[in-house]
Design brief:
The complex is a heterodimer. Chain A is built from 9 helices and 10 strands. Chain A is an alpha/beta fold. Chain A has an 8-stranded mixed β-sheet with strand order 6-3-7-2-8-1-10-9, with helices on both faces. In chain A, helix 6 runs parallel beside helix 9. The N and C termini of chain B lie far apart (44 Å). Chain B has a domain of 73 residues: Protocatechuate 4,5-dioxygenase, Chain A, CATH 1.10.700.10. Chain B is built from 9 helices and no strands. Chain B is an all-alpha fold. In chain B, helix 2 packs across helix 7 and helix 8 crosses helix 9. The chains are: A alpha/beta, B mainly alpha. At the A-B interface, helix 8 and strand 9 of A face helix 2, helix 6, helix 7, helix 8 and helix 9 of B.
Chain lengths: 283, 117
């Protein structure tokens, strides 16, 4: 059976792409952010996962409001990015893993998650930037195959934190029941606190973010006590992207199944509090 | 409209819900089209014609003409699609944040730095 080797949760912000393109990793503004990643890159070099399940949210590249699935799963041979409105460079395509995609789809529907399946799926900065941050030297060939899982955070009602936690548990169970010897890493991208729109634009909540990050170590279901409205209140309209962290952490398993190896937290990157955590699975 | 629950108001915090999605569909569809460089160029060439092509109402067209983010949100715009509109003018998220909060860009950036202390 496949094995979950660990998980990584990180923020994604379009400005990171411009910083990478401009080689600004050592720039004073960016350094505290980029300096968080080498320990994670080193861990990935050592552990060498075969497949990454990437839980992210689309910002209007693959999905528009004409059809807005709550949960969607990629089932494509490969996934490419594209211009999101500001002409970002296109990257080498990310190879998919159709066997895991369809196993995940079968398992999730069996667990009563009414997902949307996507045999074509463009992936935006929420997927591509974390991949660039985790494997900066990948060049033309990504070292992992990928399965994207997308959660709607564009149009309310959004799925609750509780529902996303359960989705994550179901993803974890599906991976562990996949009849393959693959080593799988779970990646969740988004957050942490930030708000782009309204008179409260620029809102950041360091206290809540740090409490939330701590909860992923000690009590990963902690945030599920809150409604989506509560979480928007605490973290901002886009801070709600922490739903991806909740799902990814739930996929990794219980407190006993993981060790936290590394974390980083820095304010601000663009308008965002940027967080990063690395967990290894011990069971 | 019937509702499953009472909505909560978080000051200064627009929630893009069904009401906004209905109201802002044409505006958001136009902004979604800006994923294409050719469409961005067509908009820049003749903004009014492009707004008409997407069926924007008067409130939406006026908010586009004024580049006013709070008005665009009030007209049903969604932050993620509006970001594509802002991208045409090379505006970043600090420009957008400063405009909405009535601050200078420098003051807005200082506020973000302060949040990290």
């Amino acid at each position: 059976m496949a094995k979950i080797v660990g998980g990584i949760v990180t923020s994604h912000v379009p400005a990171i792409g411009r910083a990478i393109a401009g080689g600004l990793q050592e720039d004073a503004y960016w350094k505290p952010f980029f300096d968080g990643f080498p320990p994670v890159q080193k861990w990935l070099d050592e552990v060498k996962p075969d497949v990454a399940v990437v839980i992210y949210n689309d910002h209007g590249l693959n999905f528009f409001l004409d059809k807005m699935p709550t949960f969607s799963v990629g089932a494509a041979e490969s996934y490419s990015n594209a211009d999101e409105g500001w002409g970002i460079p296109t990257l080498p395509a990310f190879p998919g893993n159709l066997d895991l995609s369809w196993h995940l789809i079968e398992s999730l529907v069996d667990k009563e998650f009414d997902i949307t399946t996507c045999q074509e799926m463009r992936v935006d900065h929420a997927f591509t930037l974390p991949m660039k941050l985790l494997w900066p030297n990948a060049g033309e060939a990504w070292p992992v195959r990928t399965v994207p899982v997308c959660i709607n955070t564009v149009q309310h009602p959004l799925p609750s934190a509780r529902r996303c936690f359960k989705l994550g548990q179901a993803i974890g169970g599906a991976v562990r029941s996949w009849d393959d010897d693959a080593r799988v890493v779970i990646i969740g991208t988004g957050g942490l606190s930030h708000q782009l729109d309204g008179e409260r634009a620029g809102f950041i909540n360091k206290d809540f973010d740090l409490k939330f990050m701590d909860s992923l170590v000690t009590d990963p279901a902690w945030a599920t006590q809150y409604s989506v409205e509560d979480l928007v209140d605490f973290t901002g309209t886009q801070g709600i992207e922490l739903l991806m962290w909740i799902a990814a952490r739930a996929a990794m398993g219980s407190v006993e199944q993981v060790n936290k190896l590394h974390s980083n937290y820095h304010i601000p990157i663009s308008n965002t509090a940027a967080g990063l955590m690395l967990f290894e699975n011990v069971a | 409209m019937a509702d499953v629950k009472q909505r909560r108001v978080i000051p200064g915090t627009p929630i893009f819900d069904g009401d906004a999605a209905r109201k802002g569909y044409a505006l958001n569809k136009m902004c979604f089209s800006f994923n294409s460089a050719a469409n961005r160029a067509e908009f820049v060439k003749d903004e009014d014609a492009y707004c008409r092509k997407y069926g924007l109402n008067a409130e939406q067209s006026a908010a586009i003409a004024r580049r006013n983010v709070l008005d665009l949100i009030a007209a049903g715009g969604n932050a993620y699609y509006l970001a594509k509109f802002a991208g045409i003018f090379g505006l970043d998220m600090q420009d957008i944040g400063a405009q909405q909060t009535g601050m200078t860009k420098e003051a807005f950036k200082a506020k973000l730095l302060e949040a990290g202390k």
